[in-house]
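Crash report, auto-generated. Payload:
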Amino acid sequence: MSTPTTKTASLPLAQLTPEMAKLQEKFGADALVAAPYDGLLLNDPAKLLDVARYCRDELDYNMLANATAVDYAKEGYIEVVHQMQRVPGGGSPITLKVRVPRGDAVAPTEPIPSLVSVYPGAEFQEREAYDMYGLHFQNHPDLRRILTWDGFNGHPLRKDWKEPFFEEEYKPFGSRWPDGGNVMRVEEHNPYGKNVQYPPGWLPTGDEYDVETDVYLGLSYSRDTTPGLKTDRVTVNLGPQHPSTHGVFRMVVTLDGETVVDLKPVMGYLHRNHEQIGERNTFNMNMPYTDRLDYLSSMSNNLGYAITIEKLFDLTVPERAEWIRILMVELTRICNHLWALGFLLNDLGALQTPMLYFYLERELILDFFESTAGARLLCNYMRFGGLAYDLPDDVRGTETLKFLEELIYNRLPKVLDQGDDLITGNEIVRARAIGVGILTPEDAIALSTAGPLLRASGVPYDIRRAEPYSYYEHLDFDVAVRYNGDIYDRYLIRMDEMRQSLRILEQVLPHLRRTAGGPIISGKPEYAFRAPRTGASYGRVENPKGELGYYVTAKRRGGNPERYHVRAPSFINLTALGPMSRGHKIADVVAILGSIDIVLGEVDR
Amino acid sequence: MYGLGIVKGMGVVLRHFVQSYVDDLKWAGKGGRYYNEEALMVRQGPMGQGIKTVFYPEEKLPMPERFRFVPFLVTDDPPPGQRWGHDWCTSCGICAKACPPQCIWIERGKQPNGRPKPEPEKFFIDIDICMNCGYCAEFCPFDAIKMDHDYELASYDRRTAHIHDKERLSKPLSYWREIAPKKAEAEDLARQMAEAAKTKKKDKDGEAREARLAEVVTRQLYYQGARY
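Recovered output after restart:
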């Protein structure tokens, strides 16, 4: 297959790290060239598997952090971007790019090798790339749409795909000002029943059962031939509307009696194409949208996006802003884990009691967020180069720092101790949780899991230490790690992490006092940022749920991101759900899902 | 011993159970724990113990100044006998350009000779798609659009009631001073400072102006810490 040629000569090429140089040496400087801006470009897609295998086995880049694609419509190719990282270990990931001709808008592209055989964690990410770009991954075990449904026409992230109520390529739309008198609601542009296109030959009125069959194809189904009582395997749908799924999420489970033989997650019920919206938006407009990804930890989402764009724009952040950011993010972590544990216990059958006890303190944190940022959940608090507001004078009538002291030194440690009393020793919880849903460290790495799920399996990997951002390298804390990889350890590790967060918060408080009155944003607040240079940036933070990464590319002087990809930890952690659940009882599946801690806003994007 | 963990957990539940009554006794002589502004603040504060529930709508949580909900337009306080004051909005369109879901629609006013007039002819906000991010208020250079505290916007017909026009959106400055006193004061000071900087060249007798400016600067600095 010929490689599409482009005029990349004029663009600045990536700086090679020693590992990248090694890789280039091994495969030859013709096959692997430095790509523009970042990473290595592999000229021959057929060699992708060899390169990946070498990365994994020889260079020890054993986890696929992120796999996505970028559409270069004008140049006529789609670039598949892989980011590999070393776990445990650290440093920045290696970026590996491959190009395929893009073909027309609807049909899949020419085949490129799937990385699932080398990095099983690529499974969902490649399915997403197939769904969004029509990339044909060869030898992928289950190449189906994942976020959109089977009756969806086209591949929505391609640059020539237009939504049914398409108004303009980029925001702000011209119709709003100065002649915005003809106000119209979007649904008037987009009448119900006339806003859908189906793929050619696909009938919405067809046999509904046929439409669904391919969901079940991936599941193993066989007739029981053992002598004795004749039993069949049964396929059961858990969800999409089920309280244990934490939202609209569906698990298709094949059961042998009550034992799970196979499990496939089905998602996308909350899909809104966050990434496509993000590419229409200006850089600044994306900030409140990131709140809506993992809506339980919007502050951390803000931080990840801010860091990515600051990398791209070369912005600096004032000291006080950095301390407040850490304060917010660590409070968010506690907030999120309190919620996650409350729901995990809910799933185990401890209905409401532990959850509500945890919420008393979570309320206080949310009150603090509300006083500072103006909203409890969807904070929209960070800006490029700093923050929107300084800390307020008072929270619920108490001076802010006094409030924080009371929270950090008194209320939060107490609620953790109380949680220990209530749950940690509880025999029912231990019986339900210990030894259930085991994920071995090897599997955890191979399946690209991140966050508490990875660390509970004995892999001490935390972005705050592996590739420190903000002031984390100056802070004294331990990366919490547990070694059994079962539900109980995933519960314990969240308790550990909250205690470590409290340690960090205690160190942050004096800095807040010291820097009081200092600037909180570098430069003037701006609403229309323009990218100072063409480039790409992958920024990542340790979100409460795992590694949250943003991959943003921009054109020089452009006001909008050309590509805006979110590496959502909940989504990729779900890759491990099937392997973890196999062999357990159906009631345990609910608890296993609860212990992954997903938020559907982020899974479905 | 097996079962000890459960007993311990029951102890926690018992403590919570007792605690929810202890606070009732504490407030019994002071007007009761519920339907009592003072008790509500303590209950919701960092020292609050026991039950945290707020009995909405009889009780309402006070909103912090920065609380943000669907924006409104600031006008001058209306002159006696009239309903609307002068719009602060100059229809510059920055809010419409900064708005992430693009829910602000502005028609700029026109003078008789066809040139633009710094005043909106029409101003709409589609509250169905407003995401309450606060960008419009944050970036408005004229303090003319602010985030409201009125969150009770339920209506019976979303088709007719959810696009707010200028009349519905406009609220006088005194309302803004009422819901966000500190922030409004800081903005007043900032405007005074800008005004003072403008008149600097014209003003000859320095001393009174210098003193005034110095005061403004100090108070401004005080507020910068809080940046309302």
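Post-recovery validation: DSSP finds 20 helices and 19 strands in chain A.
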